[in-house]
Amino acid sequence: MRSKFFSHSNLFILIAIIAAWWITAFKTEPFLYYYGQQIGFTTNLEFLKSSLVYPGGLSNYLADFVSQFFMFNSAGSFLIVLVASVQGLMAINIISHLTGKNLVNFAVFAIILLVGVLIMCDYNYPYHVSIRLLFVFMFTWLFSIIDSKFRKQSIYIWPVFAVFVFYLASGAALIVFAVSTSVILIHSQTKKIKLAAIPLFLIFAALLPYLSYKSVFPSTLINVYRLAEIKHPEILAYTTFYKLYAYYLVLPVALLLVFILKIIPVRKSEEKTVKRKILPKESFYKKMPFVITVQVIFVVLLGYFMFLKSYDSFKKNILYIDYYAQNENWRKVLEVAEEITVYDFRVDYHVTRAYAMLGQLPERLFNYPQLLGSKGIFFESANMIGSLTMPTSDLYFDLGLMSEAQHWAFEAQTLLPNSPRILKRLVMINLVNRKYDLADKFLKVLDQNMLYHDWVDKYEKYVTDTTLAANDKVIAEKRRFTPHKRAINDFPVENLKLLIETNKDNRLAYDYLLALCMLDINYPEFVNYVQHYRYYNLKTLPSSWAEALAVYIVRSKSIPSFVSDETISNEVKDRFTAFNELMKRYNNKDSAKNEARQKFEHTFWYYLLYLNPKVTNALNNKSVVR
After folding, report:
1. Among the listed ranges 429-433, 588-592, 601-605, which one has the minimum average pLDDT value?
2. How many Cβ atoms are within 10 Å of 203's Cβ, its own excluded?
3. Residue whose C-alpha is closest to residue 79's, from 167, 159, 161, 20
4. Quick one: pLDDT band at residue 240, thresholds 50, 70, 90?
5. Contact between residue 427 and residue 397 where contact means Cβ atoms under 8 Å apart
6. 25: which of 15, 77, 133, 372 fits an S-S bond (Cβ 3.0–4.6 Å)?
7. Contact present, 345 and 625 (Cβ < 8 Å)
8. What does the alpha-carbon distance between residue 237 and residue 33 come to, in Å, rounded to a whole number?
């Protein structure tokens, strides 16, 4: 006799688990989730205590702990699939307590697995939702066992379980538990007392979060009921949508459907028995191979549809670019950016950073369409949102302006406390500023994160032996570049001028300053600074600088004194002549646009006439920017 474990249903369940792990590991890629959210889990007691004082806090704590392992892609995929699989197996076990042998086990398991895995395609998804629902499945499963063995006592156990579910997983989870257990009672009981208890259970589940908000827990009313908790200050990062609702509803809906399937065949069987006096043979359509085949086809089609709706390669590539920028893998930043065919200001920002860090910015500034002008390579303070704070801090650190790097790191910390990325940045800033006591404090906080002990060990030595910091290449360079003058400037141009005034060797600041001048069509400032190009051992200007200078010379009808025969290359001169001849052949610039784009798209001249935000009005037209 074939083992029950190797049944058709279990075999396909195993195949579904393997397929889910492959999709998670190679398509979703949890390490992007980790680097995107940078959740700061710490092992200290205070962090645990802060999670125990509000409903759902313990779920949040466990979710933060589990999500640390998403940093390791394979392990993170295993944990995501494990949680969803456990939920599915519990659902199957609940159904078996209610109906005995059931033909739809695979479909129930696979749908729960699908939703639990594909919901992770949104990298802003708060993983605490999955952990909260794990508690719902667990307590519903326990209740089904108790109800099957101790039917008279189960209604007295229910309120105790309900309080636990609410405390561990908050109000939305409690309502799901109440609905699911109500369906279980309908399955298993016909006594009036049990049926009468169901509306009382539902009322209790609806009122308990409100009563706890009023008199017990220091939470907000919306958070004790909402599906995904929003922590203050609020960040508009994750929006509830159909998959989140499906995840919350999948258990009670599955139990309800199984109940319907259970009662329909019984009635048909009784009618046929009366007429024929004998039980009919088992229909082919109820045999296991056929039923499993139908379920597999249904689940595959449903999974394919859900994957198409969930998977967004554009958003994933945006996150990949930020990930590579965090790790200073600039060539990979440019490689991924080439796969994105629409303009995006975040791509613009990081592509410009990549060019600058590779020393290619003067030559390649206009290789990416600068639709927002200078606002595309420096984010405006007035329009800063949470996800942009750390990239801004990183750029200012690269440039050597520690005051602004610290400013934006602190802004980010208010949104993501204990984030390893932010703590590492603050440590480095304080080492550059020789504030070793502050660096040590941030190191101690970071050391409570179990994934960063090696990093902490390295830089703790810099605190105890300050000569090590002085010999560190990055720290030594930033100390030479960071201004001693304390000034707060709202405009990037003024910050860059301060950096160059502090140390002319800061080539990165020089390149960015000239880029800003060109993007803002600020010829006086551009000429004032470009004349110092020979200081950087340049005989001939890089292409974008030469193109801007050529336009200035033509418009001003004068040649600056610093210009020699070598300043602008013959190649740029010839191309500028060709560009002017092209424009003269057409009645206006609009009719010349297609040919100009084919021949001169990556030049300052094309930007000046066609991409400049003063021409396109892109800064006021949000439809231009995705």
Report:
1. 588-592
2. 11
3. 20
4. low
5. no
6. 77
7. yes
8. 13
Residues 199, 205: Cα–Cα separation, whole Å: 10
**Structure-derived torsion over alpha carbons of residues 100, 106, 108, 112, reported in degrees to the nearest 10:** 140
pLDDT in tens, 252-269: 999 998 888 777 654 444
pLDDT of residue 487: 62
Distance (Å, rounded) from C-alpha 472 to C-alpha 463? Answer: 13
Q: How far apart are CA 356 and CA 334, in angstroms?
A: 12
Q: Where in 317-412 does DSSP place strands (E)? A: none
Distances (CA, A) of 55 to 63, 165, 179, 220, 226: 14, 9, 19, 10, 12
Residues of the chain with pLDDT > 70, as a percent, come to: 90
Is the whole model's pTM more than 0.85, yes or no? yes
> Sign of the C-alpha dihedral, residues 13, 15, 18, 22?
negative
Residue with tokens 């009563």: 211
CA–CA gap between residue 40 and residue 423 (Å, rounded): 10
Nearest Cα neighbor of 396 from 488, 263, 310 is 488
CA distances to 150, 253, 257, 261 from 184, rounded to whole Å, are 14, 12, 12, 14
